[in-house]
Amino acid sequence: MKHMLPNLPYAVSALEPHISAHTMAVHHGQHHAGYVNALNLALDTAPELLQGRPAHWLLLNLDLVPETIRSTVRNNAGGHLNHSMFWQSMSPGAGGKLNGALGDSIDQAFGSVATFKTSFEDAGRKLFGSGWVWLVKSPNGDDTLRILTTTGHDNPLTHGFYPLLVNDVWEHAYYLQHESDRGAYLKNWWLVANWKEAGRRLARAARNAELPWKASDDELLVMSN
């Protein structure tokens, strides 16, 4: 079963003027599609156990991936997973006032939503090179929210954190519209930030649903034989 490029959850022009249709078309149709294609190509000759596995399973079980394709799978499964969440982290007509359980959790962790936004932008602006800036919580019962940055296509799941919201700070996410001004892109991004989706993910994490998993003992036995 091949990995598939997910459809955007809105029209390619739906986030304008904050994110241009041209940026979205290139970002989704070329960059994200490229990661999906490269991942499928790398997995063509992989063991049967790896076939049809979701991207996050592959990232959490990289020790089961043959060394000859491990780096390729890590980079492209990460690119596929991160972008899939990124599209969901935005929505037309989003932004606005943040309240409810997510707002309360952000107030508790950062003091205020305004402070959180400033810290999130600062983390993204200071990240050297290409990567991502995340709002996360621990999937292990720790309800404290944190801001993390990851380089390349690394994902917080591999470090034990559950992602709630993500912004892409690779240059291809903003260069067509903001050129080299990453700070302007980060500040403008709040106008499309999907708080509803982040709140949904917080609620699911609290119910211990949709959390990452490692390979089972039976699957490890199959791989060792």
Task: Write up this protein.
This protein is mainly alpha-helical and 225 residues long. Helix content is 48%, strand content 9%. It has a 3-stranded antiparallel beta sheet with strand order 2-1-3, sandwiched between helices. A hairpin with a 7-residue loop joins strand 1 and strand 2 (145-151). Helix 1 (21-43) runs antiparallel to helix 3 and helix 4 (100-110) crosses helix 8. The radius of gyration is 18 Å and the shape is globular. The two termini are 23 Å apart.
Q: Indicate the percent of residues in helices.
A: 40-55%
Strand content: 5-15%
Task: State the order of secondary-structure elements, H for helix, E for strand.
Answer: HHHHHEEEHHHH
What is the overall pLDDT average? 89
Shape: globular
Question: Which structural class matches the secondary elements?
Answer: mainly alpha
Q: What about the largest sheet?
A: 3 strands, antiparallel
Q: Ranges with pLDDT <50 over ≥5 residues?
A: 215-225
- Find the count of extended strands (DSSP E, 2+ residues): 3
Oligomer: single chain
Explain the layout of strands and helices.
Blueprint: H1 21-43, H2 55-60, H3 67-88, H4 100-110, H5 113-126, E1 131-137, E2 145-151, E3 162-168, H6 175-178, H7 182-189, H8 195-206, H9 217-224
Antiparallel strand pairs: 1-2, 1-3
Helix pairs in contact: 1-3, 4-8, 5-7
What's the short version?
This protein is mostly helical and 225 residues long. It has helices at residues 21-43, 55-60, 67-88, 100-110, 113-126, 175-178, 182-189, 195-206, 217-224; strands spanning 131-137, 145-151, 162-168. The chain has a three-stranded antiparallel β-sheet, with helices on both faces.
